[in-house]
Amino acid sequence: xxxKTLTIVVVIASFVLYIGIAFWAKAKSTSDFYVAGKHVHPIxxxxxxxxxxxxxxxxxxxxxxxxxxxxxxxxYLMGWTGGYVLLALLLAPYLRKFGKFTVPEFIxxxxxxxxxxxxxxxxxxxxxFTYVIGQMRGVGIVFSRFLEVELVTGLMIGMGIVFFYAVLxxxxxxxxxxxxxxxxxxFAYMVPAIFIAIQATGNPIxxxxxxxxxxxxxxxxxxxxxxxxxxxxxxxxxxGSKSTVDMFFITAALMVGTxxxxxxxxxxxxxxxVVDARKSAGWALLFITxxxxxxxxxxxxxxxxxxxxxxxxEIGSIDGNLSxxxxxxxxxxxxxxxxxxxxxxNGDGRIQxxxxxxxxxxxxxxxxxxxxxELKVDRDIMVLANPEIAGLPNWVIALIxxxxxxxxxxxxxxxxxxxxxSVSHDLCKSIFTPKISEKRELMIGRIAAAFAILIAGxxxxxxxxxxxxxxxxxxxxxxxxxxxxxxLGIFYKRANNSGAIAGMVTGILFTLSYIIYFxxxxxxxxxxxxxxxxxxxxxxxxxxxxxxxxxxxxxSKFTVEPPKEIQELVESIRVPKSI
Length: 579
Description:
This protein is mainly alpha-helical. The chain has a domain at about 5-300 and about 385-465: Sodium/glucose cotransporter (Up-down Bundle), CATH 1.20.1730. About 70% of the residues lie in helices and about 0% in strands. The protein contains 23 helices and two strands. The chain has helices at about 5-25, 30-35, 40-55, 55-70, 75-100, 105-110, 115-145, 150-200, 205-210, 220-230, 245-260, 260-265, 275-290, 295-310, 330-335, 360-365, 380-390, 395-430, 440-460, 465-490, 495-520, 540-555, 565-575, and strands spanning about 340, 375. Strands 1-2 form a two-stranded antiparallel ribbon. α4 (about 55-70) crosses α7. The longest helix is centred in the N-terminal third of the chain and has 51 residues, at about 150-200.
């Protein structure tokens, strides 16, 4: 069976499983639709949370960023995993004890204000839209490669599938679908990683292969990779180019953003008891760790395999450059997607892949007839292309396609549910049309999800950056808007509605304006020389968070304190009872 046919069979089989689960667990009430009836076991919820959170950014893009950014990509490893510690300790148990359906519902009740709830909904929608853009792009990349179609066509196929099973089942259907998707994605991620680790180092454990010697070379993997990339004018893989300040603020934004992401927080409303919320966070961290400790090995091996493929001779010399006419099959296949492009600028028929931003290397490259970098490789293809580059069996390549789709769809489904519940439950049901029936409320939620898919699909085809970078922006927005309001709502009795509203508005507007300015309006100025305090758009959410806290506390101090019953509510939330 050829690769395309095999991939289609494997992907369809996984979809049959997901859709079957969605039908079996179809939401029959608003409680099922929003929080799965609050009957999910902590282990199952931990697995579903891991799948919900380990999106296309984790499965597809994280190792791709590691492959090209090397040490600089460590911020994603530290930030995204460290955030779960904050979530487990500071938020999950208390929000579950509060017992509401959604984050805006908590904010609206805690701050006794419909305006606060509306502001929270708007923040949530902005965050979720930014996040889901990355997921839809991930879906499009997978389908475009394995169906050998353009990215936009693959994206449209993915949009249809997401709508079908996510909108149908609600949280109940999504939860059990995500359990299956976690099993698929982690198996699909680990199998090729183990194959390639054995192939390169002889060590079957990717985490150990990362520090092992290359087979028949006697040279450590990272040392060899440093040598290869530097010979082509790139920075050493193990040395960073980001400033310490930017590294710190990006890591902080990702950590705090993780603890403030609405589609992750809502998962802890689905378990039976408060103690189960904390257990769920622990299980989720364990399940996430499996992939995140493997990603560095996958990224480094992918970069080394790519370099060895396009430089089969002496690395860094003109004789080492691969002839375009002799390019491997995987190269030709990815060219069809438009995510890998070759432009023969000097007409010599060879693929000259050098760093065109390294002035010190330019003279040497020009001596080879170089007239500019001729190869463009989208970072987001590295995990999917890695098994093909390494020459692994077709069934492994098909498996990773199913895993990539599972990762993107699981998170996209959770995000769409958050958007739909915010519109139908937090706006329509709770504020504008309180007498609406459950049936109509569910219908409005599904219509909202459909519109969300269409908008996210458009931006998925025209994203401002790579998947992981786009997702990082969503984390920054969550850190600057919802996290301070939630944390103060739990631990600071004096926080009132005026402070919460002023803080959220300040944080989200500052962070969003900064991102739009550097990512859309003046992208040419998006560099450390022009950033505020040298902080990139991916890290600016930390400053937005600080502004949010300061404004919320100051405004609360100078305005009327919350009613007595609200202060008693805050006290009761923190009482450690397993109910």
